[in-house]
Amino acid sequence: MLRVVSWNINGIRRPLKSLEYQVPGNCATALQHILKELDADIVCLQETKVTRDVLTEPLAIVEGYNSYFSFSRSRSGYSGVATFCRDSATPVAAEEGLTGQFATLNRDVGCYGNMTEFTQEQLRALDSEGRALLTQHKICTWEGKETPLTLINVYCPHADPGKPERLAFKMHFYRLLQIRAEALLAAGSHVIILGDLNTAHRPIDHCDAGSLECFEEDLGRKWMDGLLSNLEYQAGSRVGPFMDSYRYFYPKQEKAFTCWSVISGARSLNYGARIDYILGDRALIIDSLQAAYLLPEVMGSDHCPVGAALNVSCMPAKQCPALCTRFLPEFSGTQLKILGFLAHREQEPMREQLLLQLSSPVQAQKQRKAQAYGQASRPRKSGSRRHQRNLMSYFQPSAGLPQTSPEKLPRLPLVDTPVTPKTLKEGVIATTLDEKAKASEVKDEKEIRTLFWKSVLTGPSPMPLCRAHKEPCVMRTVKKQGPNQGRHFYMCSRPQGPPDDPSSRCNFFLWSRPS
After folding, report:
1. 257: Cβ contacts below 8 Å, ≥ 6 apart
2. Is 155 a residue of the active site?
3. Which of 120, 224, 317, 492 could form a disulfide with 92 if both were Cys (CB 3.0 to 4.6 A apart)?
């Protein structure tokens, strides 16, 4: 049985920080704990948000796994995917990107297909954001047939409505992904496309598909229509080369969402979309797929993991491909680090004698003469050493000046001393009363100041109450470009949910200040 899991982790370092206190003693790192909890032979992560310069060894090297990373080369802390394979599922080949631009000619996957419809500049741009990673494994089917299986771990671009150029970029990426996947199929390999495709395919995959304008006409959904086979096959309809593993088992399952809005708190009411998929070629899904599942209980990201189990066994390679992170110079021990030049090295006791032996006899004789001359010209008294003088020694009385005894100094009468003598008890009582009076004055002055500033600084006004729930609202800021950008407004503080759910957010809206 081969288990694969895909998870948009939304920053590989962020969930690790939240899990540090939960890591059991038998797990060396938080990432190892995550991989152990996911319990899969191959774990594909998207949106890692790390570049090679910030990748640390605990993230790159995990005991029992071999890992492969694709980094964004256009922006730091953006995009990125990673694949972790158990040693029992070590791939025979691995490659970064879809275009072959980063191929090393050392155990690459190959099979690129016809990409002549793209310019070289477009191909470089499509692979520059670290959105695709390929690993090829050797599997044995239940019939005993050995065949290659290629996993394409992808984080597809998001199309911002206000940026039409990103929509074009997204559709070019989709097209390139399909060309590469179909080329691998034509070469005789089984193919799995898994990851965040950033498109909810059917209305059943979206919480509010009815309110979206032209839902079925979306270009991303049309692309998925052509890529996937329709489970309700009808004569004359096009049969796509891939199938949705989850819908293969649960074609009518509603509210099977994998992504939720963090700002609106929609996860608590399961008001989201299904944009994370495990897609397999038709033959693989029909013959070998045993299970498909979602893991909404796994927290740490705005997405949840999705998984699938195949009735095949993996035949691990004897050695990891060259793309494996353990072969990177910074982790393999071949890269010199600056700390190595700053480390303290202990001197061997015989080092000076060894240098004398290796040096010429003339230099050794000169050194011995110089040492002898130095000892003869600077004789020292036994037991005498020169020490650095202490600063306090300059304030000591000089030995040559006559010392005056304090008993011989004349006693002068005190000025303004009271004539009436007081006992010690009366003096203590008077001092205590004076201190209490001063403390009372200070306290009164403090209270007066506090009351004054409270009357001047009244603080923020109380939040208005929403009409439906009569609960305090929350303040938000308009971030969309336009005349209202930067303005504050009040809205219901409850999480976003279905309109007919009374526990979800109501439609209350109020500007904080009139325009």
Report:
1. 205, 207, 270, 271, 272, 273, 274, 296
2. yes
3. 317
